[in-house]
Amino acid sequence: MKTLTTLFRNNIREYGMLIALIVIMLFFQYATDGILMKPVNITNLVLQNSYIIIMALGMLLIIVSGWIDLSVGSVAAFVGAIAAVMMVKWDMHWSITIFVSLIIGAAIGAFQGYWVAYVKIPAFIVTLAGMLIFRGLTLVILQGEAVGPFPTEFQRLSSGFISDFFKVEGFHVTTIVIGVLISVVLFILDLRGRQNQQKYGFEVLPFYLFVAKNVFITFAVMGLCYLMASYKGLPTVMVILSILITLYAFVTSQTTIGRRIYAMGGNEKAARLSGVNTPRLLFGTFVNMGVLAALAGLIVTARLNTATPKAGDGFELDVIAACFIGGASASGGVGKVIGAVVGAFLIGVMNNGMSILGIGIDWQQTIKGLVLLLAVFFDVYNKTKSS
User: Fold this and answer.
1) How many whole angstroms separate alpha carbon 348 and alpha carbon 48?
2) With 0-12 CB in 10 A as exposed, 13-18 as middle and 19+ as buried, what is 381?
3) Is 312 left (phi over 0), alpha (psi -120 to 50) or beta?
4) Which CA distances in Å does 269 have to 263, 265, 266, 277, 286?
5) How far is 372 from 104, CA to CA, in rounded Å?
6) Where is average pLDDT lowest: 35-49, 165-179, 355-369, 371-385?
7) Nearest CA to 68 among 376, 365, 384, 299?
8) 162 CB neighbour count, 10 Å cutoff
9) Nearest Cα to 111, choosing from 290, 337, 297, 259?
10) d(CA 34, CA 30)
């Protein structure tokens, strides 16, 4: 019992937010008479929040580094506007458009990262300026008009589904196969991680809890895949999300770059004295954020099938909130990829559930603001208590 108590206390933010997500899902499942967990609504939930999750992956690294990026919504809108002009007015192929758009996103990230990392202007000021600059340039490019529609192939970036190789009518067998593969991979990775922790003498979960955790994860994965298989299968954007989440979880937890980012956020001076090139590392996090904001801009543009001057408005608030609600610390050095994803889904489920219940946008914003405030208070309280 003591081990369980210590384990929960050491991971209270991660477990607490996951428990909160489950409770909120169960509440809205009941309040909406089962609409929340219907396959079509789950698909919509993924599509509606995919770009928030993508940007939250990049924002997490910046927040862990000890900084913030207020420009991501404007960058997403700007890149979406450029992509629309390239495809509709310049008749550029959609694949080339995607490639050029990601390069533009990287250039924007490099532009902002230079001012923060090398000129030492606070990121709050630089990205606030970027938010205004790229929102203004979006208006200039679109000239106040909506530009669209786009080629079907480009629209599939957001609204497409993976093909079923088994061709079973009424049920997407390929989705079930993918679910089984994901479950096996997750179990193997968790088992290897447990073995490595035991090898170096770290505290691990009791074996029965380790088994229970993996049974729960497998049940959740297969349950989701079953629901998706009974509809149209896995959305293309969900596959993109899975790849990105796996990649960033690996980078942050298993690579030298990931450890250096956490070290820089925990104590920038100490990291620099230990040999970490902190300016270059910080510059790289902003370039990464620019690429992910560009990808998110392409996805939201494809979903709307048009680029509008108001696209991406307020995205930065949801992205930042997702990271903080998911356990990232406002002072840097703390935060996990899975936590940011849980935070993004928590916000998404709240938005979706409240919309189904007919709650107005005014109360939705109020409730989200209170949840964000409570999450940051929880972080500050735990730090004060532990010190």
Assistant:
1) 8
2) exposed
3) left
4) 10, 10, 9, 11, 19
5) 32
6) 371-385
7) 376
8) 17
9) 290
10) 6
Please answer whether residues 56 and 323 qualify as being in contact, where contact means their C-beta atoms are separated by less than 8 angstroms: yes
CA separation, residue 366 to residues 27, 314, 351, 357, 369 (Å): 19, 14, 12, 16, 5
* Token pair in block for residue 150: 């786009």
pLDDT of residue 8: 58
Residue type, 156: R
pLDDT tier, 283 (very low <50, low <70, confident <90, very high otherwise)? very high
Task: Determine the Cα–Cα distance for residues 80 and 219; give it in Å rounded to an integer.
Answer: 37
Torsion angle of the four alpha carbons 375, 378, 383, 384, in this order, in degrees rounded to the nearest 10: 140
CA angle (190, 263, 345) in 5-degree steps = 50
Q: Count of CB atoms within 10 A of residue 207's CB?
A: 9
Assessment of whether the complete model's pTM goes beyond 0.85:
yes
Supply 92's token pair.
């550029």
Q: What's the pLDDT band for 313 if we cut at 50, 70, 90?
A: confident
Q: Which residue in 337, 324, 202, 328 sits closest to 266, CA to CA?
A: 328
Tokens of 295: 């990808």
Q: Are 282 and 222 in contact (CB under 8 A)?
A: no
Alpha-carbon dihedral sign for residues 241, 244, 247, 248? negative
Please calculate the CA angle 198-200-204 and round it to the nearest 5 degrees: 35
Given the structure tokens 């992509």, which residue do they identify?
A: 83
Tokens at residue 222, please?
């297969």
Contact between 85 and 148 under an 8 Å Cβ cutoff? The reply is no
The Cα–Cα gap between 308 and 292 comes to 19
CB 233, CB 174: distance < 8 Å? yes
